[in-house]
Amino acid sequence: MSPSVVLHKMKGESRKVRGRSTVPHDDSVSEDQSNQSQRYDDNEEEGFRELPPEEQRCVNAKLFLMREGSEVDGQNLYNHLSTLLTKILVEKSDDALNKLEDESKDFKREKFTYKEPFIKDNPGRTPSEVLAHAQWQMMKTACGDPKFIPNESFDLPDEDEEDIYRLIPNLMKQALFFEQAGVGLPREEFIRITTAMRELVEKWPIETLRFWGKILGTRKNYYVVEAEFKDGEYESDLSDDEGDEDKSSNDKIEDSMIFDDESTTVTDEIKPFYKPPPRIPCESMGTGLNKHVYFVCNEPGLPWIRLPHINPAQIVAARKIRRFFTGDLGEHIVSHPPFPGLEKNLLRAQIARISAATTVSPIGYFRFDDNEEEEDAEESGSNGRNTCIIDQEFEGMPLRDLCDPTGQTWCHHMQSVLPQGRNTWFNPMEGKSGEGGEEDSDEEERNEPDEPEPEVGPPLLTPVSEDQPVHDSPAWIPRISSRLVPEFAVAMLQSNTWPGSWTFGAERGRYFTSLYIGWGQKNLGGAFEPEIPPDVMEEFPSGPEITEADDPSPEEESAFKAALADKEFDAEFGEDQAEEETSDVDD
Amino acid sequence: MDSEGLHLNIDYVGSSGIILSPEQKAALQTSLVILKNSGKFHRVYFWGKILGVKDDYFIAQGVGRDEMENRKTFYSKDCVHWGLLPPATKAMREQSKLAQGRFTGDPSYEFEHTEQKKSEDGEEAGEEETITIKEEDRLSSVIAEIDEDVKIVPRSAFIKTPDGKINANRSFEGLSVSESAKLCSYMHFRDAICLQEKSLLQKANLDKAIDFMDTLEEDIPKGSWSLQFERGSGLVTLRSLLWLGYVFYHVPGTHMYGSCYVGNGEKNLDLPFML
């Protein structure tokens, strides 16, 4: 308010100082001002009255100046000019005209207020921050509170104490050996994986743990860890029992639809003889292919997800399709033949196949248990031994033997997967006879051909040189890791059937492990051939009742009738003739 | 991948399983410097590794100022001694496609491919023609094919001067995070094939100095590249699904990028089934 007050005072001065105009444009107005202001004083109490034209112009001018500027910050031209003129008259400098624009600009700048609020939105976390936080959290829990007192000794874990963290394998030692051969992941990743595995041992009743490897996918990758649960802990595993039940109910629905559908115009004697192939049950948890439990995560630091158990149908289907993994466990697999499951099932199936085919050890490290009881030996009789134990008296073998190019010094210590999809043979006939099931089951059994022969895989602990070669190249490629320092090198075994699977053997074969880094695809040797759709099903057995015959044409019909009439005529005539003949003979 | 700083940059492709042992790094650091001097190259790139049965081949490429022409390829089995590979001609490349199976590791090995030649009347008794393919030739052809099919660079990393020369862009600052998530920011480092077929309307928006190569968006089949962000958004990795084992990395916001191939040297012809 002060500028306008000053102006008012100045107006007062102008009354005395004639010729000095405060309103810039009209001199005639200023002369009359003194008279009119007096008149105002007189008539203030009267309220609104019409203004004479000069006053009108004056008031209009002032109102125009007082109009709010385009910026809504209380700036108007009137105030700005009054401030400016006040400053000039107070300073009374000689240079006022030159500095006029600058001072005007300064005033404007001072008046400028920042419109936006000072409280800004927090920008969302970038993906690196999210990941970094997850990993930092993981590392924080692992290393505990920081200790600032330098001389205090750290709480080193007692060597004899039972520490669940001892189950985590010494990945750094493995990383060192793998790196010597030019294989594997950068060492920092191994550290992150080790730290992430702590979460697993804390949550699950694990007996052994191994870093299985990394499977690359198109959108995300999988880090896979293999674990064995303690005995008796497998039952607490819920996994996908629901999935299995759904599948079995689906099968039942299909069967009933074929047999009980009344809308088909099939007579009772003729029934289609389609029988779905017998469902082979998966191995019970803790045995065979389901002995190991696998956990995956997309990045170390993110939570681990347990993969479901494997069932034979999935393995059989996985053999027939060839697919990249996308990185999402719940992704649907659209393929031919249709894969019974989601991506997590396919992942589990591929992991099972890779493990069964590429878990190797130096010959002599494992041996069969001689103390096995006879009953056990009989049960596993036709398949060979199922289990092997570590040979405590293994002396190791020199590096030259381990790198033997024929591969005779390494052997498989995990059972291979039979064509049926399991480790142990399951006889579908035994399963059938047990079922009370549908009425037709008895009939079908009679028509069944001979019992299928049990499938036998190669026995455990066979050397890898016996593996089927891929095209012209051998199945396994042993190599020595270093050329410059062969004295201290390690032996590397590279798989050709599953490219990406590496095993090293060090310390005379006493320390070895395998790792898989790849896309999860088998080396087929040639091009992939998708399965051809099966033949079109014959619905009914062909027989005289249902074979179509053409309707006879009119000529055929009349010929047939004529022949029939002839026959009848002949039959009658033939009798008379016969009588006549016999009578003739008598005469 | 540039040979200078190789031992640091190889970490960027480590997440795809590509690492070099300390011994190999040491040998490469010295031998690539010698290679650069003896060949008078402007730059030497460590191209990658082709795995064979008995031995692996390490491949390096030396280039002059113009990076698309005058590329010389060298191979080595122990990272110490390098040998020059013959440049791949069209005929050589056609023949090499007939050789099947993995590389053996012996450069003088000869692959044999027998073809039944039917006589023109369609008689069954045909002549057997055996074509031998030397492993060196096959190696050279495979490398040329990989370079043509999948070698990529970020957009605006190279500039075409008005006289047709292709130079590295010195003021390349890298792609932003959002740009590096798009496939159209990466281009094939080869003479453009699809570019000429584009309509004038599409070409109007392109900058002739930068957009003189095909982008990845036109690759068939769609989805033959896997683009992933590692370390959150700190590193972008592109893996080719056509040639399994080719990895390209780029750190968004910086000028660091490079690529490497470690694999069998076999094209993934089953790709359409696998997507």
TrEMBL record, chain B:
GO terms for biological process: axoneme assembly; cilium movement involved in cell motility; motile cilium assembly. InterPro entries: Radial_spoke, RSP9. The keyword Ligase does not apply. Pfam families: Radial_spoke. Residues 103-130 are annotated as: Disordered. Transmembrane segments: none annotated. Residues 121-130 have a biased composition (Acidic residues). Keywords: Cell projection, Cilium, Cilium biogenesis/degradation, Cytoplasm, Cytoskeleton, Flagellum. It is found in: Cell projection, Kinocilium; Cytoplasm, Cytoskeleton, Flagellum axoneme. PANTHER family: MITOCHONDRIAL RIBOSOMAL PROTEIN S18, RADIAL SPOKE HEAD PROTEIN 9 HOMOLOG. Belongs to the flagellar radial spoke RSP9 family. This is Radial spoke head protein 9 homolog. It comes from Magallana gigas. The lineage of its organism: Eukaryota, Metazoa, Spiralia, Lophotrochozoa, Mollusca.
